[in-house]
Amino acid sequence: MKSWFFKSEVKNDMEKKEWEKFLVRSNDFKKIFYVNQKTKVRFCFSFMSTIIDENTLQTNILPYLLEKDFNELDDIKLIVPMSDVQISDDASQIEQKIFNGYILVTIETEKKRFAFIAAQKEIVRTVAPPEVEFSVIGPKESFVESIGQNLNLIRKRLPIKELIVEELTVGKLSKTRVGIMHVEGIADPENLNTIIQRIKDIEIDNIVDSSYIVQIISDNKHSPFPLLLDTERPDRVAAILAEGKIAIVVDGSPHILIAPTTLVEFFGSFEDYYLNYILSSFFRLIRLFAVAFSILITPIYVATLSYHYELIPKDLLSTLITSRREVPLPPILEALFLELTIELLREAGARLPTKVGQTIGIVGGIVIGTASVQAGLTSNVLLILVALSALASFTTPVYKMGNTIRVLRFPFLLFAELWGLLGVVFCFILLMTHLLRLTSLGRPFLEPLYPLRVHDFKDALIRLPFSKQNMRPQFLRTEQPVRFNKKKTKDKKQDIDE
Amino acid sequence: MTNRFGVGLLSLFFLTGCVQKEILDDIAIEIARGYDWKEEDKIEGTMLVYNFQPDKSIKNTTLTTTASTSRELVNYLQEQSPEPLSEGSLEVFLFGKKLANEGLIDYLDAPIRNASIGARLFLVVVDGNAKELLNGNYGNRGNAIFISNLLLHNIKYENLPKTNLQLFFRDYYEVGKTGFLPQIKKIDDNKLELNGISFFKTDKIRVIDTLETEKMFYFKLLVDKFSEGSHIVERDADKAVIRSISSRHKMKITKRDPYTVTVHIKIRGIIREYTGPGTLTKKVITKYEKALEEEVTKECEALIKRFQEQEIDPVGLGFFIQTRTRGLHLKKDWEESDMYKNLTVKVVTDVKVLESGVIE
Predict the structure, then answer these.
(1) Facing residue for A318 by CB, picked from B16, B21, B56
(2) CB neighbours (10 Å) of residue B37?
(3) A290 is in which domain, residue-wise?
(4) pLDDT, tens digit, for every residue of B106-155?
(5) I need a surface site. Which of A475, B15, B81, B360 has the fewest CB within 10 A?
């Protein structure tokens, strides 16, 4: 009997199925046979041992299949205490399911049918405080590299049935799971359809991070400006979904994309909402000033010193001339030299391990700064300006926009050298025409400045108190433009004792 | 589309030569210029050039030459300068008294035609020689800054009416108005003083009269407004200093054929110093108010008489009447007839002392 059994098993096993041919070449592919102790049904597990959770298999699946009444495949749904059990007769699914962490169960008696039990092993980093968009007050959660965990973080903040996640798979090789989230009844379906269509149309082999998706589905792929906002804060995503925007969650990426977005949104830190509206409006204005300062100050220095000496106040002339007395370079080379030095420092600081990185600060700040002034290569006035503009460029809360601002300074410098302030103005016009033409999901990027939407200023350059924020942004064309009843907020709540 | 844009952008780079480059430390920044009469049809020009010392102090460096026109003069001076002379930062233009008496029209063309020279440039008449004045050493921020600060402070707090290149030429081109400029004098090598206001005849922009320093207060009341002035009022042997004077003037045509213009001058001030018998009661204050009213009326009317006799009109009475009279053609009706000479001007002054200090 035993030899017959064995023979039959071998024989059975020798008939390698089409889908197995490749799988068996991987060492972590496992195929194990078992016999139910009650019904003596012989069944077989096939799975990739590296991506399933063996613990689940040993405690939640195997004991039940061995000891309970197990006659046919449909019984699995009843006896195994797992939520994701699928019965199918479609052999083409097998490979995909196995690589998604399912365990394939087959039994002798039903050759054409298969059962899949989900037992994915999730190696998830613990939820850490946000590093890029850190805030002193407010929640200290940030997204991790797992789509499941990320959805969990968002759903906890919006526990409503209207929050819908649609999942797509992108990438011929990576098979990356991409979830598109929106709140039904608020978000404009047009936006949703645009995103779904664009993501479906993506033709690429490998998606590693959400930044790939940004670059592929942006309205203008040749713009230095990011056209989708990315964030690592669940609170921001939840707030933005409630506003009627759409979030794109990509598996393996701790950054979630938000669309459509506008330029001013990149200069609002989410901490703005945790502070009093007067403070946050002030900080927003400071940030905008910092951006303008960071882009324009060195070009203006170069332009005035090369072309418009008559604009310099008489009291400042002596400071400027004496500080440039020793400098052999014309203003443009002097400025480029310092700007490049700062860029080098920043780049080196970003690439080096944290511990070594500290020395870069010392080397940059003290050695290069002071030494180049003493050596007479740069004037100390410019050194101050460049340092200040570097400092100002760090105030941008969204890292990607900060990078854009870093780069923008150089065309401005070039134009300042070519035509002085006229060139700066010309470059500014070029920048404005570019910004005016940009769209995010077809919605104007410069809104509410252009097209002018006065109502949307409540949360743009400044932030008004929450009682004034009762309407959703106009440019989103939400299905439900009213957020809450403003009348109820207006009444001053009377104390019960009065 | 992108290609066309790129070509357009690239072609712009061929235009780079169209802008003249003047790097700050490779030019000689001219900050003041003086013209003097040398001989018939020759002028002597002096340029004050910024010269910064390594310790940030400023040395006064002047270049001087003689030429027949002001353009020629600049060209000759370029030959003396190690770096190109640039006119963009000019603060003051000085004219020697003798040249001003001859007429300045040929020398004022340069500053109004050059776009890089600011409209707030000061034009000044020098009582004496401009070259000598520029060769002095005043203050520690350079002579030009010294002169312009001297004028600025006198305009803001003292009795000099607002004046600069733009205002002078507004008056010059206005029919029915003539210009005036401040006059300064060198006292010694380290000192200057503001010593009057020169009035110009429009024809060749030549000085016809100079107002004494004591009368400048009344002149400013007529043409400008005070916001921070001060004035001493004398009554018999007593004196009171009125400070924080603010004033407004308003003109009205009260009668036509012949024209009568009434100038209402409103003065508000605070008594800060008083020397006299007894305390400063309300009665006494009223007396001082009356005294100042009479004084201002008398002096202002005398000033206008003086202008009428010399056929100059720095107050702009002719211009004022034209704005209120339909069909009056100033060039024809005014300047060629005796209308200005026969004009009657009345000055009505209203003085109020708002405070008289705290000590009773």
Answers:
(1) B56
(2) 19
(3) 275-444
(4) 888 888 888 888 889 999 999 999 999 999 999 888 899 999 999 999 99
(5) B360
Tell me what the pLDDT averaged over chain B comes to. Answer: 88
How far apart CA A165 and CA A182 sit, in angstroms, is 7
The rounded percent of chain B whose pLDDT value lies above 70 is 97
- The answer to whether B151 and B158 have CB atoms below 8 angstroms apart is no
Best-predicted range by mean pLDDT among A361-365, B101-105, B346-350? Answer: B346-350
Our CA-based measurement puts residue A212 at a distance from the nearest CA of chain B, in whole angstroms, of 24
Most distant CA pair in chain B: distance in Å?
91
Regarding an ipTM greater than 0.95, the answer is: no
Q: CA neighbours within 13 Å on the CB side: how many for B191?
A: 4
Q: Do B19 and A419 touch (CB under 8 A)?
A: yes
CATH second-level architecture of B224-360?
Answer: 2-Layer Sandwich (3.30)
Contact state of B22 with A309 under an 8 Å Cβ cutoff = yes
Report yes or no: B14 at the A interface, CB cutoff 8 Å. Answer: no
Residue pair B151/B182 in contact by the 8 Å Cβ criterion: yes
- Put simply, whether B24 touches A (Cβ < 8 Å) is yes
**Res. A277 pLDDT band, cuts 50 70 90:** very high
Contact A305 B24 (CB under 8 A): yes
pLDDT over 90, % of chain B: 45
A366-389, pLDDT tens digit by residue? Answer: 777 788 888 888 888 998 999 899
Give B272-288 pLDDT, tens digit per residue. Answer: 888 877 778 888 889 88
Those residues whose C-beta lies under 8 Å from the C-beta of residue A267, and which sit 6 or more positions away, are A284, A287, A288, A291, A396, A397, A398, A401
Interface residue A29 vs chain B (CB under 8 A): no
Task: Select the residue of B13, B21, B52 nearest A306 (Cβ to Cβ).
Answer: B21
| Residues in chain A within 8 Å Cβ distance of B16 | 418-419
- A321 CB neighbours in chain B (<8 A) are 24-25, 50, 52
Size of interface A-B (CB pairs under 8 A): 64
Q: Is residue A476 assigned to a domain?
A: no
Residues A282 and A249 in one domain: no
Domain assignments of chain B as residue spans, ordered by start: 20-211, 224-360
Query: What are the tens digits of pLDDT across the range A148-185?
Result: 899 999 999 999 999 999 999 999 998 899 999 999 99
R_g over Cα of chain B: 25
Last residue in a domain, options A64, A97, A118: A118
**Same domain? A228 vs A295:** no
